[in-house]
Design goal:
Helix content is 39%, strand content 18%. The protein is α+β, with helices and mostly antiparallel strands. Helix 2 packs across helix 3. Bound molecules: zinc ion (2 copies). One zinc ion (ZN) binds next to helix 5.
Length: 137
């Protein structure tokens, strides 16, 4: 059993309280506002260690920003490539597949990623105000 550092414990607690995916930078600010301040390098190092332990997962947005959250959150998103908004979807279509893969490949699965990209309703309207009107030129 690996022992966790105090910084790692703090990060886990904070991620649990926040209950959402957050960037390392925002997490750093969040910790400081909760008087749990630690250096940004420590935040990155601790997140990396927790990731290798299977406690924390990383989701990378189209703009390259990495968002960290606790692994037990099996949630997927519809992400708009234009405005960057994310809609959480409730179902997980691959939940059972995980179990099957674990059996077939004897691979210890920590988590999986599944994300859909496209345009949200608002951006579809802005892009093409007269779309699907069916009127020719
Ligand atoms: Zn959008
Ligand atoms: Zn899932």
């Amino acid at each position: 059993m690996r022992t966790r550092t105090r910084s790692q414990e703090r990060l886990l607690t904070t991620l649990k309280i926040l209950n959402r995916a957050i960037s390392a930078q925002d997490l750093y600010i969040e910790l400081r506002s909760r008087e749990q301040s630690m250096g940004l390098a420590t935040v990155y190092r601790s997140l990396e260690a927790l990731k290798l332990e299977g406690m924390v997962q990383v989701r990378t947005l189209p703009n390259g920003e990495a968002l960290y959250s606790l692994v037990q959150e099996d949630r997927h998103h519809l992400t708009c490539v234009q405005c960057g908004s994310s809609i959480a979807i409730d179902e997980c279509p691959v939940h059972n597949l995980e179990e099957q893969l674990h059996k077939s490949y004897e691979f210890k699965i920590y988590y999986h990623m599944l994300e859909f990209f496209g345009l949200c309703t608002r951006c579809q309207t802005e892009n093409n105000p007269r779309s699907e009107s069916g009127q020719g030129s």
